[in-house]
Write a structure and sequence with these properties.
The chain has 344 residues and is an alpha/beta fold. Helix content is 47%, strand content 11%. The protein has a single domain, classed as Rossmann fold (3-Layer(aba) Sandwich), CATH 3.40.50.620. The chain has twelve helices and eleven strands.
């Protein structure tokens, strides 16, 4: 197999492109795909501050490295979920990545700052742990971004992730979710813009990128993800992709181009129906938002962490469905710095 660009020996084949690449041109391919995503969808404007949500896994660390290579300065945010040794190893990988590159890493600890962890939340709600995990991440990523004045939150969702979520939403005709499934969720008063610059790259590509650039990432899957519906959707799409390379990209890109605009109205209608959480001011369809209800059930009344810093008025938090609307209120987040910022 030869590199499509230089005809030298290839180190990887990307079947959906019907092409092989040498190391140099594969890295360029990955960076070009991210650059295209950034430019085509205006994900980051000049001078904006970017916060990358990092987990120690291949996707988020590859994203952080690629953004730096493309000249897009970004800091990292690690959220400790309290999942035993897995969380400890994830945190160690993230800290070492930041330390070795002189990058700034912020940390928020769910058990220490909010009085509960993901296993406790799963036990208290008697539901799959991934729901509590996703809710907590969305809530705290945005809260931290607003507190520290970041304009953009970037996550490492790749092509496989987005196609799997799309399949699940289509099978259930979740019109509200379909209206918001886009690589960019626009900023609103009190909300940072949320972007997914890796949506043009597959999971295998991000893994190869890490290997070829020497990024030491945590390989193991989250021990609490077993049975997750999202993984089942991924497996179904993997079977289709194996038979017909390019299926995932055609499915996702076709929806973004021709399907997403048709569902935007449903998303806007749901947004108009939201009010303010009585506890934290975040948007919700009830009196208290999902995160505050989760915290009360998992941590117990009166066990919430002491507030150490507050956002200005106008702050708000994302609900599980990603809806963002401005509401007055304050949000507390405890932060720790895990690396020394790079000079300049």
């Amino acid at each position: 197999m030869k590199c499509r660009v230089c005809r030298g020996p290839a180190v990887i084949d990307v079947r959906r492109h019907n092409a092989g690449f040498c190391r140099e041109h594969f890295l360029k391919h990955c960076r070009d795909q991210v650059r295209r995503a950034l430019d085509d969808l205006a994900m980051v404007e000049p001078g904006e501050r970017v916060l990358v949500a990092v987990s120690g896994g291949k996707d988020s660390l590859a994203l952080w490295e690629i953004l730096g290579h493309l000249g897009v300065p970004a800091d990292g945010l690690y959220l400790g979920l309290g999942i035993g040794g897995y969380s400890q190893r994830s945190a160690a990988a993230t800290r070492e990545f930041a330390r070795s590159r002189g990058l700034t890493l912020h940390e928020v600890d769910l058990p220490g700052d909010h009085g509960f962890d993901v296993p406790a939340a799963a036990a208290a709600t008697r539901r799959a742990p991934c729901g509590a995990c996703g809710l907590s991440k969305r809530h705290l990523f945005n809260a931290t971004a607003r507190q520290l004045r970041y304009d953009v939150v970037a996550t490492g969702h790749n092509l496989d992730d987005e196609a799997a979520v799309l399949l699940g939403n289509v099978l259930r005709w979740e019109t509200g979710y379909l209206g918001r499934q886009c690589p960019v969720l626009p900023a609103a008063p009190g909300f940072a813009r949320k972007v997914k610059p890796l949506y043009r790259l597959g999971e295998r590509e991000t893994a190869a990128y890490c290997i070829l650039t020497g990024i030491d990432y945590i390989v193991e899957e989250c021990p609490m993800a077993e049975g997750n519906r999202h993984l089942g959707m991924k497996a179904m799409l993997d079977g289709l992709e194996d038979r017909s390379p390019g299926t995932k990209a055609a499915f996702l890109f076709g929806f973004l181009e021709r399907g997403a605009p048709r569902f935007a109205e449903a998303s806007a209608t749901e947004r108009d129906a939201l009010g303010a959480c009585a506890e934290c001011g975040s948007p919700t369809t009830g009196a208290v938002c999902a995160f505050c209800r989760l915290r009360e059930r998992a941590a117990g009344p009166g066990r919430a962490t002491e507030k150490t810093a507050s956002e200005p008025d106008g702050a708000a938090i994302l609900e599980p469905d990603g809806v963002a609307v401005p509401e007055p209120g304050a949000v507390a987040v405890t932060l720790r710095s895990a690396a020394t910022p790079a000079s300049g």
